[in-house]
Design a protein that fits this description.
Two copies of one chain form a homodimer. With about 500 residues, chain A is mainly α. Chain A is built from 20 helices and three strands.
Chain lengths: ~500, ~500
């Protein structure tokens, strides 16, 4: 390795040290920090973030990167892919003028407050001017970053490398006709079958025991991780061997914390499976939100909501929670497969979730194609909601004001949730072609499945575009059919 | 405030942000960090520490400090004291050449391993060459820092600003004749009276309830702090409103965690009482180890081992731990006032503790006066131990190899423990001249006492030398008589 290359390595490693130090402070802020510390903590985090940003956007960084590119062996395709992605990130970071970044930070900070008020008072008009400004900033970002077909592509691609409006439109066009039907059938069947879970309390200490046992069993490493408690569950990486999860507990329903843990452990095992030897490099980094979500959904839904999984674990749950003794495994599976049309995305289930995303994608697409005036957003939301769910939101607080994302200027983010679901189904379909993996899953032994994910997804870091990663892992383009087949088989029984 | 002054403020604040960020990572390392993360955590901490060190020893720092001194109002005595101390710290940090600092780090890292082996194998010879090198380095540091009377002064003063060999010799000379007598009487009385605490288990969850209740009651703020569990109890400051304690639990003795909490809460309330508006400045910093220890000992011993305290809290302990029902308050007070001659400093009690420190002070003084060859240290230790305790250590592992301090090159550190005890007794004596404080203490209400400490100790940060701080707070020089009187009254009953 040439001297220049070492020097880029060193710069990147330093940035990773800074970024992960900030992650420790961020984790502490959400878990254990005493309340009066928040003001100073914000200052600490802002200092660290400025240090990392300064370095990663400096001319020194660009020069070292360029030198690394020049001295990279032509035949070392992985390293070329690594440096190519590092260059893309540098450009994403430097193509935006400092004033624009500062303006966005300021506007979104005001917008978040305005959104909270607007939602509370059910008054879209209060949020509208802020939203308009954020859309305008997003448009300017798209222009600065550049795109081939349309501005929305640039916004999609900053969350999901290589994703385009055309690609997502294709996927949602395939999903739309069948998904509504599946969802409706699932809701009807669930209405007939589902029995409420026996009353709590499901003691927290017992929930923790079960969650930890299961997380360990599916392959999440506690030598390089832990589970804590927060209001909003998350997974965060504090270093190459330090990937932590959180969940929240509901004494009346142990499934709430458990499925939270399965979801976050999916994220966590992806992070634990990334190459740890070059922190901060694309080669050692997660590639996209969609691929990340594919891992969480895979463990939460394909594994965690499967009958084979519960054939192993339900007896243990019954011994921890005696009130389950009168609730059969069949009863429990109906509970786990409950489907309902919900007004609120975050409360929705596996069968109906992607309808919520579809709605947001269609609206965002129209906004950035200038086919929808922001003032008309509430009406457009409600109209589409009726089409997809057969009911009208009672107000905007339960409609277009429900999500935090737009108040943060995060346009093009929602579709990554559905990409996660589609990829998860496609990956599971491909993995199950291997009889060892299939037999393992059918007896709730997930070693072979995790090994396959490590080999086909985790170890590649961010070297290839998500679509290419899926292609290499499954042999076909990202497609919607696998997910439709999965939902149909689980929720409609065909 | 002039522009230069603002700029020094900014540099100092930045350094405080870095130092406290490192403190967050350090706290996490001791409390919750998963085991595999330790290698990368060391890199994160080393980056942060280098950033802080670079800044605090840079010419820019010196220039800004000088500018601040030049523009400081002559009449602003507090600010002059603040800048004077910042200058002293800058000099302490910059008077040592980089090579010496690097050499010390390397030598002490080897020495620590050698000491652990030597202690394990009871083989002083293994540690001797490392100790010799560390003493040589300490001598060089003393020469570089400078001193008036003798090299040991410089080492004392780096832990305890302004402390000298002469001053400490005076204090220990007063202590020595009476302390041995008090200790012997205390041990004898304790042998007659002490009854063992009823058998455990004292459940951890109940211990935590009692500890938190008491810590809150004496004035430790949980809005700016918390208590976690570690092998070695400590107190650490993560920001102006974030001062955390740890303790360890023993299911067979609830006193172990409780006195740990009282001790650390004493440190914690001092930190919580420091001015929080200028983090990193001497004005907002603890002044010395001795003053810090005076606060921890005050709450642990003067408050926590007093009968008034337990008249309030013992009934609550009994209701949490039913096995105490047959153990009277008198029994319990005898347990709390147990005194024994121990070979090991960290296992010793209030009545005998300072004898252990005296021994170390006398030996260190001889070493740095070149009156004691290091090879003769074990014999000298044992000889003095017989004089002070009336018994001979069975081996060096229970003698001169027992403490970690020398293996870290921390010479001149031990005396701060006794300074803490002396100051605590002197402060309590002065505070109790106020009838509100006295009445409060006698009914286990500590608001007035804490207010007095805030006013007379905490709020002054590191503006004045420890001895000056004691003089201002109590009206007299640091003296040993108050501590002798306290021990005598508690342990000999006169």
């Amino acid at each position: 390795m040439s001297e220049q290359n070492v020097s880029f390595q060193e710069l990147v490693r330093e940035c990773a040290l800074i970024g992960t130090s900030a992650a420790v402070l961020g984790w502490d802020q959400e878990t254990y920090m005493p309340e009066d510390a928040s003001g100073f903590r914000a200052e600490q985090l802002s200092w660290l973030s400025a240090q990392a940003h300064q370095r990663a956007t400096s001319p020194q960084w660009a020069d070292a990167l360029e030198a690394a590119v020049q001295s990279c062996d032509e035949k070392d395709l992985a390293e070329r892919a690594n440096l190519f992605e590092m260059k893309r990130r540098y450009e994403l970071a430097t193509k935006l003028p400092v004033e624009l970044v500062a303006r966005e930070a300021k506007v979104s900070s005001h917008a978040k407050r305005a959104w909270m008020e607007a939602r509370k008072e059910n008054d879209f008009a209060k949020f509208l001017p802020h939203l308009a400004e954020l859309v305008e900033i997003a448009r300017e970002k798209a222009e600065r970053w550049g795109y081939t077909d349309e501005p929305y592509d640039a916004l999609l691609s900053c969350h999901e490398r290589g994703a385009t409006t055309a690609m997502l439109s294709g996927l949602f066009d395939t999903l739309r006709p069948q998904l509504s039907g599946i969802a409706r059938a699932a809701v009807e069947r669930s209405r007939d079958r589902a029995r409420p879970l026996p009353a709590g309390p499901y003691p927290l200490a017992q929930q923790m025991i079960l969650n930890e046992k299961i997380a360990r069993d599916i392959g999440y490493s506690f030598a390089a991780g832990r589970i804590d408690t927060t209001t909003h569950p998350f997974c965060t990486t504090l270093g190459p061997c330090d990937v932590r999860l959180t969940t929240r507990y509901d004494e009346s329903d142990f499934c709430s914390s458990l499925f939270g843990v399965l979801h976050e452990a999916g994220h966590g095992m992806y992070e634990q499976g990334l190459p740890g030897d070059r922190p901060g490099m694309a080669a050692g980094d997660a590639v996209s939100l969609g691929i990340h979500e594919s891992q969480s959904r895979l463990w939460e839904n394909h594994v965690g909501r499967s009958r084979a999984f519960w054939e192993k674990w339900y007896p243990q749950a019954v011994s921890l929670f005696p009130q389950l003794q009168t609730f059969s495994l069949d009863d429990f599976m109906s509970h786990v497969h409950q489907a309902n049309f919900s007004l609120i995305r975050v409360e929705s289930d596996e069968a109906t979730y992607d309808l919520h995303i579809m709605l947001r994608f269609l609206l965002e697409k129209k906004i950035f194609r200038s086919e929808l005036a922001l003032a008309d957003l509430p009406a457009a939301w409600n109209e589409l909601f009726v089409e997809l769910f057969g009911m009208t939101p009672p107000d905007d607080a339960h409609g277009c004001l429900q999500d935090i994302h737009w108040s943060m200027g995060a346009f093009g983010y929602f579709p990554t949730y559905t990409l996660g679901n589609l990829h998860a189904s496609q990956l599971i379909h491909a993995a199950r072609q291997d009889s060892t993996i299939r037999d393992g899953m059918d007896s709730a032994q997930y070693g072979p499945l995790l090994a396959w994910l490590r080999e086909n997804i985790h170890r590649h870091g961010a070297l290839w575009d998500p679509a290419e990663l899926i292609r290499r892992a499954t042999g076909s383009e990202p497609e919607a059919q696998y997910h439709l087949a999965h939902l149909s088989s689980r929720y409609v029984g065909v």
